[in-house]
Design a protein that fits this description.
With 710 residues, this protein is an alpha+beta fold. The strands form 5 sheets. It has a 6-stranded mixed sheet, covered by helices on one side. A 5-stranded antiparallel sheet has the order 2-1-5-4-3. Strands 7-6-10-9-8 form a 5-stranded antiparallel sheet, sandwiched between helices. A hairpin with a 5-residue loop joins β14 and β15. The chain is elongated and about 135 Å long.
Length: 710
């Protein structure tokens, strides 16, 4: 049986009591209509009989008290209903509090009292009305007043907000009656205006205006008032309680009653005394400034003459700047030319030395070869230092940002010097501390150059003991601290700061005993600064040295403790030969490179210039092209572009640039020219082996050529 039927049949007597029928009861049809009316109400309705049993509740009541109402059944005692309501709707969890609520609910059900509100756990607020009908039956209603409560709170907050604004703002509000007499003020008028509201109530504005008010402005204001017009920004002087003159700015709007009759004005006021006084002071200052105008006009003529002189000086400075820029350009071009001209014969010298070293020689001949190689290597190192110093000085050095492994760079540098250290009986150690030395972004070439210089110096100035290279993160940052420690001769502390100046060494005898130009550390400092880092040194005589620098590089894999270096890998030849096209115009370099390439098991064909190289790659099959950059008629970049433009598979052949210039930071530029990579003259046998081995592995795996540019 539905609750509607229950209302009609089970609680018919209660319905009659509710309706106030005494002897004339509702008939079934009337009860049905009454049931439908109750179900249609927006209020919740509930009925308890004279034994406190639940005998009826409509759908709205069930919805209000969900989810507790899902367990209710008609005929249940009020005690059960109240307990489930406490737990499911009011959020009461303490057993004692639940039972206390149930007892109060039973007692208060028939108590004669005013309506009250219940706040449910879902945030709804219900106003509760309960009435005892005839025969001890109770009819209760629930009205959802959630929105009404919110509106009441919002109204109270709005009223409080308005009051706060009135009390804390710099303005105040006022009202006038129909006779234009002040009837009300808001805010702290005495603090803001120096007058008490009770002294102004009932007075007109003319009662306290200062006598020096502007007559025209005052008449215009009176006209607005007489014609009941709204006015804005009317400023007038008033007499303060201290009998001084203040200034007020007011805005006003007519007030009308419900019938449209004028009942007065309402508006705001503000004390603008300081503002008006400031305007008066400004007028006085402007007058004083006008008096100075003639003096300034005369001085202006003098400034014009001085300006003309400055323009002439600026023109001379621009000419000097252009001359300096031309000198820098000429210097850069000269160094580039010198680099090419020196590197080309140096390639021949070092190549010849390498070939001679690989042949059968007597001991004294090997010693002579060693001396020649060291001298040539030193000359090449000096050339590189001069070029780097020039680039740094003229701002031509660029920083790369590529992914690389700090671990690999540090260990590669250490492996480079392993044989030199062992020859001196030194222990060369690598220590890579916590995570941060794996993948990161930065310029690995410049990092390698800095470490190479510092490690080379450490080995040079350490007669016995050890050299340790380390890298570790700086806590809380993305920076790494690099250190090169040695147990060498050390440096006087007062000379440490001078070490990073060009052509400076610790002592005047250092260059005589150890050699060197003093450029290396100056270049290191400028490279570190170029990458936004710092560099320094700690040292004392006979106590070794600690050179350190910082770079902003992300850190990764941790390696614990100093780790001995792996044995250096021997230079090896390629067992499966490549067919190589060498484009080179210099006969000496042709001879040396052909001998080197053939000695490691590859076949080589020579093209004397770029045009011949383009023709040969179309007529013959090659695995790779070694292309000199500077050649007569058709140079290397032009030949590379022409090969890339061919309409055949030969357009994808790997092409390596061979340049006598410096390739520091130049990989991307050569790739843009059409090359896959670049190698610098003079080319060592080991570097040539590594390059060709890598080229072969990429050919065999059918990968796209981009050697050492990832």
């Amino acid at each position: 049986m539905s609750r509607k039927d229950t209302f009609s049949h089970t609680t018919g007597a209660a319905a009659n009591e509710v309706a106030g029928r005494d002897g004339d009861a509702f008939n079934p049809q009337e009860l049905t209509l009454l049931s439908r009316a109750v179900e249609a109400l927006d209020e919740g309705v509930v009925i308890f009989d004279n034994q406190d049993r639940l005998v009826y509740f409509n759908d709205r009541y069930r919805e209000m008290y969900a989810p507790a109402s899902t367990n209710w059944q008609l005929g249940q005692p009020l005690r059960v209903v109240a307990r489930e309501t406490a737990i499911g709707c009011l959020g009461i969890t303490d057993p004692d509090q639940i039972e206390s609520f149930v007892e109060r609910r039973i007692i208060n059900l028939r108590a004669s009292r005013e309506p009250f509100e219940q706040v449910l756990v879902n945030g709804r607020r219900l106003r509760v009305y309960e009435t005892e009908m005839g025969g001890g039956w109770i009819v209760g209603t629930r009205v959802d007043v959630t929105q009404l409560s919110l509106k009441e709170r919002e109204l109270a907050e709005s009223k409080q907000r308005f009051q706060d604004y009135a009390e804390s703002g710099s303005d105040w509000m006022w009202e006038m009656d129909a006779d234009l007499r002040y009837s009300a003020f808001s805010g702290d008028l005495e603090r803001k205006m120096g007058a008490r509201p009770e002294d102004l109530i009932g007075k007109k504005r003319t009662d306290f205006c200062a006598p020096d008010i502007d007559a025209a402005a005052w008449q215009a204001h009176l006209s607005d008032l007489e014609n009941r017009r709204q006015f804005r920004d009317f400023v007038y002087p008033f007499m303060t309680s201290e009998h001084s003159v203040g200034w007020v700015r007011i805005n006003g709007k007519p007030r009308l009653d419900a019938m449209g009759n004028f009942i007065g004005y309402r508006g705001t006021g503000a004390d603008v005394t300081q503002e008006i006084n400031a305007l008066h002071a400004k007028d006085a200052a402007e007058a004083a400034l006008r008096e100075q105008h003639e003096i300034l006009a005369a001085q202006h003529e003098e400034l014009n003459a001085a300006h003309a002189d400055l323009e002439r000086m600026a023109a001379e400075l621009r000419l000097a700047r252009d001359d300096a820029q031309s000198a820098y350009s000429a210097k850069s071009e000269f160094l580039a030319t010198i680099s090419h001209e020196i590197r080309t014969p140096m390639n021949g010298v070092l190549g010849t030395i390498q070939l001679l070293a690989a042949s059968e020689l007597a001991e004294h001949q090997k010693e002579l070869i060693y001396i020649a190689r060291e001298s040539a290597t030193g000359l090449l190192s000096l050339l590189n230092d001069i070029l780097d110093a020039s680039k740094l000085e003229t701002g031509q050095m660029q920083v790369e940002f590529i992914s690389f492994s700090v671990d690999e760079v540090v260990r590669d540098v250490a492996r480079t010097f392993k044989a030199t250290a062992e020859a001196k009986g030194l222990e060369l150690m690598v220590s890579l501390d916590p995570a941060g030395c794996d993948r990161c972004r930065g310029d690995p070439t410049k990092l390698r150059q800095i470490l190479t210089n510092l490690v080379s110096n450490a080995i040079k100035f350490t007669p016995s003991g050890k050299v340790e290279v380390s890298a570790k993160p700086i806590g809380g940052t993305n920076a790494l601290m690099f250190e090169v420690r040695d147990s060498g001769v050390g440096i006087q502390p007062d000379r440490c700061d001078d070490l990073f100046s060009p052509f400076t060494q610790a002592e005047s005898s250092t260059s005589r005993h150890y050699g060197g130009t003093g450029l290396g550390l100056a270049i290191c400092k400028k490279l570190v600064q170029l990458m936004d880092g710092e560099i320094g040194v700690d040292s004392a005589p006979e106590q070794g040295s600690r050179f350190w620098f910082t770079l902003n590089l992300a850190t990764a894999v941790r390696r614990d403790g100093p780790m001995p270096l792996k044995p250096a890998e021997a230079v090896h030849g390629n067992q499966d030969g490549l067919r190589i096209l060498l484009a080179e115009d210099n006969a000496t370099n042709q001879y040396l490179l052909v001998r080197m390439i053939e000695s490691i098991g590859h076949e080589v064909v020579v093209a004397n210039n770029g045009a011949e190289a383009v023709t040969r790659v179309q007529d013959e099959t090659f695995d790779i092209v070694l292309m000199d950059i500077q050649m007569p008629d058709v140079d290397g970049p032009t030949a590379a572009r022409q090969i890339r433009g061919l309409k055949s598979d030969v357009a994808t052949i790997p092409i390596l640039a061979v340049t006598a210039g410096s390739i520091e930071g130049e990989h991307r530029r050569y790739v843009d020219m059409g090359f896959d990579d670049c190698v610098a003259k003079p080319i060592s046998a080991s570097e040539l082996v590594d390059t060709l081995d890598l080229a072969k592995s990429l050919i065999q795996s059918h990968r796209t050529y981009r050697l050492r540019t990832a």
